[in-house]
Amino acid sequence: MKDEKKNEMKNEMKDEKKSVLITGASRGIGRAIAEAVSEAGYAVVVHYNKSRRSAEELAESLGAKSRPVEVLQFDTADRAECREKLTAYAESHGPLWGIVLNAGIAADAAFPGLTGEQWDSVLDANLGGFYNVLQPLIMPLCRKKRGRIIVLSSAAGLIGNRGQVNYSASKAGLIGAAKALSLELASRSITVNCIAPGIIETGMIETAALDKILPAIPLGRIGRPEEVAALAVFLLSEAAAYITRQVISVNGGLV
Known about the structure:
CATH architecture: 3-Layer(aba) Sandwich
Radius of gyration: 18 Å
Strand content: 5-15%
Largest sheet: 7 strands, parallel
Structural class: alpha/beta
């Protein structure tokens, strides 16, 4: 009887359409993750805050391939808005399989000139967004007793970065929060892991001094968003069920 029940559960998991929310999915790494996750067969929930046109174009692109996709808009720094929209989503759609916390902002400045607004805005969006997005979705996930949470940190959160004290602090905080949450959720078969990208080809590096950065990267090139997305797809999979509380770097060997 036990074997039959296990087989029934396996078949149910196989047939169920698993939904994955990706915050900040309208561009850059988030967009690449959304496309790769969709290609892997998951239903995708595309989140955006201000880039409505890009999010709708992505949704149309995925929908044109007959892939399930929905769009959600909210500000990850706005706790009340996150709770309202995510609670409503969970009540109408049920628990998600995966949550990829990718949305984030940067407001760079040397620390002596860093304003209080720059500090608060980055911490509120990046680190505050961890609580604001996850907290309304955790109990449905716990009741389901399985799922995946992936947090996008950064090389800056591991080694720091000049002119990014606020950004580095927020990304380091995400690592601590994710590791603590992984301990709380492990008994419910929910994994929590961090991906720490290095220098990736996105809009965030448009003003970076690549001639000075590249010598520090053993592979001698910047990364592609698709290379980060490939890891996210694996961490969402059943094959990654025994991987939790980890920080995995995608940085070409940057130290």
